[in-house]
Amino acid sequence: MRDLRLEKGLTQEGLSKRSGVSLSSLRKFEQKGVISLESFLKLAMVLGNLERFVEASKPSGNNFTSIDDVLNKKENKRPERGWRK
Questions:
Q1: Residue 75: predicted pLDDT
Q2: pLDDT band at 24 (very low <50, low <70, confident <90, very high)
Q3: What letter does residue 47 receive in the DSSP assignment?
Q4: What are the residue boundaries of the structural domains of the chain, listed by start?
Q5: Residues 28, 6: Cα–Cα separation, whole Å
Q6: Helices (DSSP H) in the chain: which residue ranges?
Q7: Other CB atoms within 10 A of residue 78 CB
Q8: How far is it, in rounded angstroms, from Cα 73 to Cα 71?
Q9: Residue among 44, 46, 25 at smallest CA distance from 36
Q10: Predicted model pTM
Q11: Exposure class string for 48-77: b at 16+ Cβ within 10 A, else e
């Protein structure tokens, strides 16, 4: 996010004002990587990067209809390491 902010020519103060995320939260995020999901999405929206996160959150193709489907799939999966016939 810091790199995106700098590419857009925004200061921390400018991004804070445009996004509604407090300056202290933005600084903490850039220094330590800690921020709420809401604030993260606000920053992504202002920086024009929100679509990447929307795409990443779409279902991956597992069309489970119940918790039993999930459990059955998990039980039938072979271990990836050390499995022998």
A1: 55
A2: very high
A3: T
A4: 1-58
A5: 16
A6: 2-7, 12-19, 23-32, 37-46, 50-56, 67-76
A7: 6
A8: 5
A9: 25
A10: 0.66
A11: eeeeeeeeeeeeeeeeeeeeeeeeeeeeee
Token look-up 């407090």 returns 22
Higher-pLDDT residue of 55 and 28 is 28
Query: What's the gap between Cα 81 and its chain centre?
Result: 29
- Cβ contact 1:53 at 8 Å: no
Fold of 1-58: 434 Repressor (Amino-terminal Domain) (1.10.260)
Task: Give the relative orientation of helices 12-19 and 23-32 as an angle to the nearest 10 degrees.
Answer: 120
Mind listing the pLDDT tens digit for each residue in 40-75? 999 999 999 999 888 888 877 777 788 888 788 755
